[in-house]
């Protein structure tokens, strides 16, 4: 039995936030029913995004609504607040937060008190001060970015098909991806696969007309699958006429021209930035200890070091890896650890409230799988190396087993089945990003955006 009424605040609705709240809901079922505990989840979005499926959503293999999990449905019995925590004052056990109503209310951020806090805000894209990146770069971390990128690629093919200017055509059909990790390689491979298929429906655009370029600063890609599988991936991508430029950096994309550190210049309308992540900026506004890399310094029990009643896991937390060969190493900030950490974290909060001993988190990294497009992939799992169709099948099977709720699993399987039986959808719905544009114009106002034009090089 919980000693006293406990107000548990979960900051973030991603892997750690959702799974921790779900675990707490189950472990504290009786306490919640008796009113001895309450769980509040503060998150900027009303859903959890299953990020490994973003490349397939971008390629049109899965509907975007099926790669997200609605938090209110999954976390019934918890209070879900759509808003953002702006600062954490753990010494006072309070946070300041803003909600969708804050601006209209005009009262400023509100304070929320808690007894136990779980910090799981996740990470954001790690960008560099590269000229033109903020104006022209496209991220690939959210479902909105994934679908926006799909619409953008098809739109570029439409531009190339309709223009008579060779410079415009060349820029429209040049796609530059920066970052050779999972996000960059899988996004590029899936979108190139989709665009190659879509080209058959254009009378004057052929797959060989398109330039797909992967820029990676280190000397290898996909380090998680090992050196051998990384080399195989480079060979496989180059067979598809994808330029893989290792040991190369993006110096500028100002004026819609990608300038690389090796001196190459590519006029392009598409620069996709997937060069890593960094801890959420919220951590800068806390009074909790952090590592040199900005992550919260945590114990193996997933408590924040030196601070009772503060817990963390996932991308925002530096959790000691008890299974590592080298002492002092932290768990990698990936979904494999985040989901497992969330279970232990939920159990430990319940143990703490009941005065029971805490568990330590220990999970040996099992390996990695990556998709390289339809029926193509690489995998390095438990020492076994797979490539081609077996790796792709393992990728789909593994992630299907991990996507939350039976509802989502069934819908994803149904879409995969339909995509195997019927042709791909290659429609661009870019206008969804500006749904009021046509009405505003008809009503005599100015459109809220200007359609992209002059891709020759003007910024």
List keywords for this structure.
22% strand; FAD/NAD-binding_dom; disordered C terminus; single chain; globular; 2 domains; 32% helix; NDH-2; NAD(P)/FAD-dependent oxidoreductase; 459 residues; oxidoreductase; flavoprotein; alpha/beta; FAD/NAD(P)-binding domain
Overall number of structural domains? 2
Pairing-aware structural class of the strands and helices? alpha/beta
Task: Report the count of strand segments.
Answer: 24
> What's the CATH first level of the largest domain?
Alpha Beta
- Whole-number radius of gyration? 23 Å
**What would the average pLDDT be, to the nearest integer?**
90
Distance between the termini: 63 Å
Major sheet strand order: 7-6-5-2-1-8-20
- Estimated helix fraction: 25-40%
Largest sheet: 7 strands, mixed
Shape: globular
Number of helices: 14
How would you name the CATH homologous superfamily of the largest domain? Answer: FAD/NAD(P)-binding domain
Say what the CATH topology of the largest domain is. Answer: FAD/NAD(P)-binding domain
- Which residues sit in consecutive blocks of at least 5 with pLDDT less than 50? 452-459
CATH structural architecture of the largest domain: 3-Layer(bba) Sandwich
Residue fraction in strands: 15-25%
Pfam families: Pyr_redox_2
GO molecular function: oxidoreductase activity
Family: Belongs to the NADH dehydrogenase family.
Keywords: FAD, Flavoprotein, NAD, Oxidoreductase
């Amino acid at each position: 039995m919980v000693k006293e009424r406990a107000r548990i605040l979960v900051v973030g609705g991603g892997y750690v936030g959702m799974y921790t709240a779900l675990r707490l809901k189950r472990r504290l079922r009786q306490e919640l029913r008796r009113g001895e505990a309450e769980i509040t989840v503060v998150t900027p979005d009303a859903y959890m995004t299953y990020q490994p499926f973003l490349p397939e959503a971008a390629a049109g293999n899965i509907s975007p609504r099926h790669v997200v999990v609605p938090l209110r449905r999954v976390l019934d019995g918890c209070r879900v607040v759509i808003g953002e925590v702006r600062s954490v004052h753990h010494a006072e056990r309070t946070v300041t937060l803003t909600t969708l109503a804050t601006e209209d209310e005009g009262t400023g951020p509100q304070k929320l008190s808690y007894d136990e806090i779980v910090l799981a805000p996740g990470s954001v894209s790690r960008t560099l001060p590269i000229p033109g990146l903020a104006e022209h770069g496209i991220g690939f971390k959210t479902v909105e970015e994934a679908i926006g990128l799909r619409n953008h690629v098809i739109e570029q093919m439409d531009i190339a098909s309709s223009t008579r200017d060779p410079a415009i055509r060349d820029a429209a059909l040049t796609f530059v991806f920066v970052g050779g990790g999972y996000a960059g390689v899988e996004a590029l491979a899936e979108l190139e696969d989709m665009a190659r298929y879509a080209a058959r429906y254009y009378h004057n655009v052929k797959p060989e007309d398109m330039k797909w370029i992967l820029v990676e600063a280190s000397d290898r890609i996909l380090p998680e699958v090992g050196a051998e599988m990384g080399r195989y991936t480079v060979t496989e991508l180059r067979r598809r006429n994808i330029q893989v430029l290792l040991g190369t950096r993006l110096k500028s994309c100002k004026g819609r021209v990608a300038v690389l550190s090796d001196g190459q210049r590519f006029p392009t309308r598409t620069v996709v930035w997937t060069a890593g992540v960094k801890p959420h900026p919220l951590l800068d506004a806390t009074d909790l200890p952090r590592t040199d890399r900005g992550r919260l310094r945590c114990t193996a029990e997933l408590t924040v070091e030196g601070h009772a009643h503060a817990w963390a896991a996932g991308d925002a937390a530096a959790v000691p890896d008890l299974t590592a060969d080298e002492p002092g190493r932290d768990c990698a900030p990936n979904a494999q650890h985040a989901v497992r950490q969330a279970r232990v974290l939920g159990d430990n909060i319940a143990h703490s409230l009941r005065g029971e001993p805490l568990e330590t988190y220990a999970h040996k990294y099992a390996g990695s799988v990556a998709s390289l497009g339809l029926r193509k992939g690489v995998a390095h799992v438990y020492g076994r190396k797979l490539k081609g169709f077996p790796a792709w099948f393992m990728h789909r099977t593994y992630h299907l087993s991990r996507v939350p709720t039976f509802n989502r699993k069934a819908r994803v399987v149904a879409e995969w089945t339909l995509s195997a039986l019927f042709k791909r959808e290659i429609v661009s719905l870019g206008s969804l990003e500006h749904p009021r544009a046509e009405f505003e114009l008809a009503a005599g106002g100015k459109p809220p955006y200007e359609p992209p034009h002059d891709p020759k090089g003007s910024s």
